Amino acid sequence: MTLLRDEHLAAAFDHAARSYDTLVAANPGYHAHLRRSARRLGLPRGGEGLRVLDLGCGTGASTAALAEVLPSADITAVDASAGMLERAAAKTWPPNVTFTHAPAERLAEAGVAGPFDAVFAAYLFRNVTDPDAVLRTVHGLLAPGGRLAVHEYTLGGRRTDRAVWTLVCRGVVQPVATLLGDGGLYRHLWRSVVEFDTADRFADRLRTNGFDTVRRLPLPGWQTGITHTFTGRRPTTTETAR
């Protein structure tokens, strides 16, 4: 199969929205890992006085992680799938959390404007057609010194990492998703990971697009070598990215 992109991917997520939370709840550590990545932003005082963009919020799992770790931040959550966003917005949220329907490539058209003190992106970049263009957009939305955390399936490069990922997808995730009528989306999930950057390559991509102090951080459990947190920073106006 070819990878799903743009409106085709959004439509697949629309259809899967009804069962998405049930599937991710069966993934050991899913929500705890998102909270860990949110903490890795390293924002002070629970986010007091800060603006945070949750880019690709889905049904709100990443938003919930941010709201728990940064209860005082002003959180703007964005997603390209109307169905996923509807599920997210229907949940109970504090008043400092807002939702906007927009693809990552067209944030300005939806009125999403910086500067943000931090951007959090979970499971987003392997799904966009041009990750470099989206990284440049994120860089432009951040205030000087603003921070980025990317939580993403990025294989570590060992043969074992790909084997474990394939076993989990083909042995567990895809059969269940097919029964729910969403097999195409979860076949895309497997392929989007094996065809995307390795963890080292994605860290280099961040540096190439202007971020400094880039770190690649592992996550525990079965996802070690499969899922990573990447952190970086937009340099201040007196610095040069390195």
TrEMBL record:
CDD domains with a match to the protein in the record: AdoMet_MTases
Entry keywords, A to Z: Methyltransferase, Transferase
GO molecular function: methyltransferase activity
GO terms of biological process kind: methylation
Pfam families in the cross-refs: Methyltransf_25
Methyltransferase domain span: 52-146
Protein name (Swiss-Prot/TrEMBL): Class I SAM-dependent methyltransferase
Species for this entry: Streptomyces prasinosporus
Lineage of source species: Bacteria, Bacillati, Actinomycetota, Actinomycetes, Kitasatosporales
